[in-house]
Amino acid sequence: MRRLIVALALGMATSAGARSPAPDRSPDPSPTRRFVLADDVREAGAVRVPADHRFDRDHGYEADPHLFSVAVPPGNYAVTVTLGDPARAGDTTIKAESRRLMLAAVRTKPGEIVTRRFVVNVRTPALTPPPANAPGGHAVRLKPREIGSFNWDDRLTLEIIGPAPAVRGVTIAPATVPTLFLLGDSTVTDQPAEPAASWGQMLPVFLSPDIAVANHAESGETLKSFLTELRLDKVLASAKPGDFAMIQFGHNDQKVQWPQTHADAATTYPAYLRTYIAELRHRGVTPILVTSPERRQWTADGHIRPTLGDYPAAVRAVGTEERVPVIDLNADSVRFYEALGPARAPLAFNDQGRDATHHDNYGAWVLARDVAEWMRAIPALAGFVRRDLTAFDAGRPPAPETVDVAASTMRSSERPAGN
What we know:
Layout: E1 5-6, E2 33-36, E3 47-48, E4 67-71, E5 75-84, E6 90-96, E7 100-108, E8 113-122, E9 155-164, E10 167-174, E11 179-184, H1 199-202, E12 212-215, H2 223-228, H3 231-238, E13 244-248, H4 268-282, E14 286-290, H5 311-322, E15 326-327, H6 329-344, H7 361-376, H8 379-382
Parallel strand pairs: 1-4, 2-3, 11-12, 11-13, 13-14, 14-15
Antiparallel strand pairs: 2-10, 4-9, 5-8, 5-10, 6-7, 6-9
Helix pairs in contact: 4-5, 6-7
């Protein structure tokens, strides 16, 4: 699939040899960039992006019907989109980077024009090189599937989808807002392709545009591997006082068949959690612990069989000892699955329910909505949750048929790592 790449760096020159597309007039000297995607819109200072013509890289961008990318330095960016069409109804969903849900099913009547705003975090694998003779590395040690992915490139990418997408314009500007970092495994990460999904990539749609979500979780990760691959280093290097970090590990840490990364629930696992907490607090970042969602395995009498051993209890104990808020996603995931029952619970899981660990869009949406509900009970985070959300109970989830998350164009039959 082609990507629509606008080679305009915010606050930076275009790459060598590239020519910027000509705007309607002289470009705005501020770091804000404005793009027009609808034929009937005229806006001085904005870059017009024709929908019916593909430009090569020498002209700065190339057209694609679903993806829109802008070259930017790492950081947080406020994205303002104008939605609607003078002649037809619109139904627009927008995801950012690797399928982070930003706007879901924004419906507009013919002639109705609306504006929506959200914040996108952009990063690259690069780390500040350590001093001579000092241990460390120059970049995060990415897995093969991550190399070149939207989450780790030098662009802000939007995926514009839905039954009748109607985007008229896009404005992008640097944003000075707190960042919520997500540290975890495959049940948290931004899964890059349908039908798999994780709660971390659904969380942004429930939050206000006053905070950015930086999802650093990755499939197969443990507390130990997150360290050795320099992922924690990347988080700590990017974080600033006033930021937040949610930490959820356990699915892979419990695997004794992975001897290099196994962490015992009674000893090393809580010790590593305390180390993460200390490192974050040292930098003025507020840590939040999250218990891992349960796997979908049933007992003979129709209840979920626990598979995570003492790991959820260890998280709760460390939270109490360190006075760190704990989001008990483990307990709530059990209530969620049991509310659906054995016959319908597979509708919340990847690969048409054949995967009993990883979720699909519906399951990830419900778990993310539950995390947002927990956030409302944490004073430091409550103000970042959308005020229009009604109360939510994971034990009384919405029916799968009622949750509208448009499917992305990227698809893969490969199971997430760590299954």
